[in-house]
Design a protein that fits this description.
flat
Length: 101
């Protein structure tokens, strides 16, 4: 329990920053009209490509004996790739709605 409290005290600036980012994000996304929500989120999901590249870089620099890091990196690559593909699929479907038949 003491180790947890020491960690929280030593990292309090980061914790404050994350909490502030959560509240600002909720306010910003909450103010977006529902008509614009899908295009905004599909574009934001495409940004996950940065996560995929970062996870690949971490995987390449990780020694073979760190199994936990390798597993988390592989999970990050898979989930990030799913998010990127999903963002592009949503954007493609949205653009199909505006094409003339």
């Amino acid at each position: 329990m003491e180790a947890i409290l020491e960690f929280l005290v030593s990292q309090r600036e980061i914790i404050y920053f994350i909490l502030l980012a959560i509240f600002v994000g909720i306010e910003v996304i909450g103010g977006v009209p529902s008509v614009l929500h899908t295009p905004l989120m599909s574009g934001a999901n495409a940004i996950h490509g940065v996560v995929v590249i970062g996870a690949i870089i971490v995987l390449l620099d990780t020694p073979v004996d760190h199994i936990g890091t390798l597993v988390l990196g592989a999970i990050a690559v898979v989930l990030g790739t799913i998010n990127v593909v999903g963002g592009f699929v949503v954007t493609d479907r949205m653009l199909e709605m505006f094409k003339k038949k």
